[in-house]
Amino acid sequence: MAEQIPLCPVRSAAAAAPNCKRAAYFSVAGPGPGAERPSRYQLEDESAHLDEMPLMMSEEGFENDESDYHKLPRARIMRRKRGLEWFVCGGWKFLCTSCCDWLINICQRKRELKARTVWLGYPEKCEEKHPRNSIKNQKYNVFTFIPGGFVLAVTIMREATDEFRRFQRDKEVNSQLYSKLTVRGKVQVKSSDIQVGDLIIVEKNQRIPSDMVFLRTSEKAGSCFIRTDQLDGETDWKLRVAVSCTQRLPALGDLFSINAYVYAQKPQLDIHSFEGTFTREDSDPPIHESLSIENTLWASTVVASGTVIGVVIYTGKETRSVMNTSNPKNKVGLLDLELNQLTKALFLALVALSVVMVTLQGFSGPWYRSLFRFLLLFSYIIPISLRVNLDMGKAAYGWMIMKDENIPGTVVRTSTIPEELGRLVYLLTDKTGTLTRNEMVFKRLHLGTVSYGTDTMDEIQNHLVNSYSQTQAQASGNNASSAPPRKAQSSAPKVRKSVSSRVHEAVKAVALCHNVTPVYEARGAAGETEFAEADQDFSDDNRTYQASSPDEVALVQWTESVGLTLVNRDLTSMQLRTPSGQILTYCILQTFPFTSESKRMGVIVRDESTAEITFYMKGADVAMSTVVQYNDWLEEECGNMAREGLRTLVVAKRALTEEQYQDFESRYNQAKLSIHDRTLKVAAVVESLEREMELLCLTGVEDQLQADVRPTLEMLRNAGIKIWMLTGDKLETATCIAKSSHLVSRTQDTHVFRPVTSRGEAHLELNAFRRKHDCALVISGDSLEVCLKYYEHEFVELACQCPAVVCCRCAPTQKAHIVKLLQQHTGRRTCAIGDGGNDVSMIQAADCGIGIEGKEGRQASLAADFSVPQFKHIGRLLMVHGRSSYKRSAALSQFVMHRGLVISTMQAVFSSVFYFASVPLYQGFLMVGYATVYTMFPVFSLVLDQDVKPEMAMLYPELYKDLTKGRSLSCKTFLVWVLISIYQGGILMSGALVLFESEFVHVVAISFTALVLTELLMVALTVRTWHWLMAVAELLSLGCYVASLAFLNKYFDLAFITTVTFVWKVSAITVVSCLPLYVLKYLKRKLSPPSYSKLSS
């Protein structure tokens, strides 16, 4: 259909503008310079006539016949303006912008990164200057803190304190001492003084200071383990291998007796790859060794075993860890942005009021002086103290969150955005480790004709015992007659024998094809026993498994449970223990690690007893289905397991002859030594082996759900929050977890977006999806990429209407991109939650990032704004603390504005009565006291207010929905407070002027006292639930004012304020200013009660 119908996507106005220009430029336009240019879309793989078919974005389109499409008018062709016309119509802007960009590029030109040759132990031989190996996490310098006034002292002190702590942490890290190997022996050197080319010795449990190539280790195996949790977020240890040429040297000092260098690629972001070569020139012939990621020691990792010696190749800003540390944006809450807009409006009101007063004066004399005086007199309209109150309030909210016993372990890392937790509309969550525990349990083994579950694992154990006992019997009876064994075998059923051998092969493949290393804790004095020596103790109780993936550990633990145990592994060999206790030794010839591109890993081993060479491989079904022999069950069973929520791995093998392996090894080593396109060449050689492999089995591992995930997700959904799950897992598994966790309710339909690769396919699939109503969307990362390329606006518009969205096979950059798309297209607040290093970019891109400390390390929790130990804590964090923080800050900020507006209104009335004189009503301490000791404590006590109890907020998450509309702080509420301020200011000042007797000083005494009392009563009017500290604040402020009257004889007539006349006049004015507001509030609560009042009653 797409070939017959013209296509023209409906774009948003913003997206259409640039496209129109390009369409005009490339269109066939009749005669003229553009006439012979091809159409824009003719350059793409789609046919040109797809350009005029509209993507239906309205219901009416579906009521007509499918052929009833309406062609949209093409963009008009506009001639390009030339000469003076071009300059006047915007060319001057283009020239100015170009000049500015050129100057900026000259000033901010970055140094080009280059590959380098590093001579061992001779940093002075380096031809280029390299950055100092010091860490700088500071955001500011000394001059940042010079400006700023007294009012901003709280904010500045907080930032300065944080900055000083960062400086101290940096200083501590940069001052760490390391042993540097020189011709004269070992010398101590600071971390910040390490240079490219230095030979650095790093002890066990010590941080690696810079990126190094691994030359030597104290471990006998020539390898060591490192912990990378602070680099990639993974808690499992990684194996690193020393350069064999330097590891073989007899002594440490021999590193200076050889003439060798390392060629390293230019500094890059990718922490999982490295290309380089090691060359020793003084041997005959020269020795060349290829270097890969397994020969590197990246900065910020920690040595977990032995002592290592490495040559520094990257320092400071060029290290992988620093290059991957993006400077996170300073997040500003929506409430702060709204207050900024209101403050701008107040500033305009200040200027307008001052201009009006000068105008009414008649611009007599030096009017500009009067204008500035009025600006100063009415400056209280601008709530300068609002910033301090809000900052202190945010600190109080953070303290309350961390002290909440119902969510222990919660940490507030960004104290500036607690109100954001109360305004969320979209929650984007990772799956593995966030919704699930990242605790893998082996659940299923499928051999094609037979499947084994948790209740039939004992059968596998029996098959394994029988198989190995027969193997031993055959081995011991090699010299005797072979007839009895044959007779015994023939008596057994044929199917039984077949299944036993297949089970044996499958379990053996799972036990051999992995990157797991058994680790045995050292017995004896801590730190004295080397890692390699501790390996000699093979007791099961003392053994733990280390691997880069929990799936790998689960598989090896399962093979141990059925009788085939991995007891030892080093760089070249692996030992398995059979059910009978026999030790089988396998020589590791090659290992091909798992990568996100290949989605599989492999190993070539030689059985020491039989000399058989076997290539084992396991991986995702999409990657393995093309390399295994034809079968009719793999795809179906993978789908079945995925629907059960299991993570599947396909295991296969291929037997190799000695000649086949030798041929492969020579080609493989040659590919690894190449400097250009090494990755592609190595992959091509490995792929030559991945053909017609024998399919052994399909494994299923379950990732268990986190505690209380279902009720938490249901609560969030009832609160009006739309939840998107972004995961790297396969589509079936992601869909199953979405249903089992109740992310998608059982009554909802699920629309699985079919894989699309072209624009026409995406168009048709989007139209099919448009017909669905109230159904969850499941889409893969590849299809998402195609849709966003051609129909970004339309896709986001459709997806946002879904109650839930599941994006599977998502890359980390895609996760962050989706967050930014939601922010741009909807303008709503987003929250991202994850637990691994791959979630950091998503967490930092979201308006509010939450990290979970899980199996994958602490990287996500450290990069997040809020850190929680479990997913279930999000419910209380949002429903209780997020809601309260927003409502409290909204009330606090509007009250602070009201406080300034009231006194400015009184000043305006006073000046108007006295012929628009620019004379201050209150002077000196009265103004300072009004904003501080007299009203500060009651106003700030609003941070303790709550409309409903926390239990009610958790029980009725629907209350959260109201907050997303922003009704607590809006133009409407702001105008109401402005009107209240004008009314009260006018009543207080005019009442005092009417009631004042002979002296002007009585006006000040009456109006100021009434003003203070009005503010205290207004706080009481605003409070919804009284806290004992609120009452204390009210009484304390009133007591301070009454006590200070004795010292304010400069402003007040002490004889007058002790009379009954003063008391009744002040009382009358205060009652008139407050009583109507109390009556109106009472009537409103009776006639139109808010939603929370129905629950509290």
Automatic annotation (TrEMBL):
Residues 469-483 have a biased composition (Low complexity). It catalyses: ATP + H2O + phospholipidSide 1 = ADP + phosphate + phospholipidSide 2. The chain crosses the membrane at residues 297-316, 345-364, 370-390, 896-918, 924-944, 974-994, 1000-1021, 1028-1048, 1054-1080. Keywords: ATP-binding, Golgi apparatus, Lipid transport, Magnesium, Membrane, Metal-binding, Nucleotide-binding, Translocase, Transmembrane, Transmembrane helix, Transport. It is a multi-pass membrane protein. It comes from the Eukaryota. It is an enzyme of class 7 (translocase). SUPFAM superfamilies: Calcium ATPase, transduction domain A, Calcium ATPase, transmembrane domain M, HAD-like, Metal cation-transporting ATPase, ATP-binding domain N. InterPro entries: ATPase_P-typ_cyto_dom_N, ATPase_P-typ_P_site, ATPase_P-typ_TM_dom_sf, ATPase_P-typ_transduc_dom_A_sf, ATPase_P-type_domA, HAD-like_sf, HAD_sf, P-type_ATPase_IV. Its EC number is 7.6.2.1. Belongs to the cation transport ATPase (P-type) (TC 3.A.3) family. Type IV subfamily. This is Phospholipid-transporting ATPase. The gene is ATP9B.
